[in-house]
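User: Is it possible to get a 3D structure for a protein together with its bound compound? The compound here is cytidine-5'-diphosphate. I've pasted both below.
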Amino acid sequence: PESIPVITIDGPTASGKGTLAAAVAARLGWHQLDSGMLYRATALAAMRQGVDAGDEAALARVASSLQLRFDGERVLLEGADVATELRFEAVGAMASKIAALPAVRSALNALQLSFRKLPGLVADGRDMGTVIFPAAPLKVFLTASPAQRAERRHKQLISKGISASIADLWADLEARDARDKNRSVAPLKPAEDALLLDNSGLTIDQSVDRVLAWWAERNPFG
Ligand code: CDP
Ligand code: CDP
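Assistant: Yes, that's possible. Here is the predicted structure of the complex:
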């Protein structure tokens, strides 16, 4: 698996990581890992089972026994589609709380590594370039202004029929970013060799072209 190429895309909430990763994976014909979904699914499963947000051992058990399957737009948790619930901000907030717990993170390691399959993988999250795939030949750190991120997340939720106020979302995003940056395990930060991309003024296509151009320059496999 070490020889299978990986492009990592890390960055704060609603910076556009998932959208960019999906588009780059589609253009290259590669697999995709949305690692945030694994934390969100663990959070949702724990909420459903009534597991306490402070019970690290129980949360790690939930993470290591996750019955999760991706099928196009659908995300199946124990066979039922939970794609909509996973996007709720309450689930994102719980995800960022449990993601600070080392036992939960290590319980999800093997599952994340298993997504690395031929012909390649585009993985997005917070620690794809720093912890999970530290030898990836291309690491991108994606940012956008807080105002744009709150507005994008708002539009995205509305389009899924989930109501939310921009002011509340902004506050939620800042709280989550602060927690993700300040935790002691796998904090959100660019890898030393990451390329920074601020997509505030860019269209999705322009960001995709930027990453594909970087990949063309760096592709160690020719
Ligand atoms: O994965 P992450 O939370 O970083 O963000 P996302 O879910 O990919 O993007 C959040 C929303 O911003 C989506 O609805 C994207 O379509 C939108 N977006 C945008 O409008 N312009 C961009 N350049 C990138 C993303
Ligand atoms: O879509 P958005 O960027 O809002 O969040 P996400 O990528 O779905 O991730 C939800 C939460 O999971 C984040 O706030 C992080 O705390 C956590 N996470 C993480 O710790 N490490 C990852 N590789 C991915 C997500």
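The chain has eleven helices and eight strands. The beta strands are 6-10, 31-34, 68-71, 74-77, 80-81, 121-125, 138-143, 195-198.
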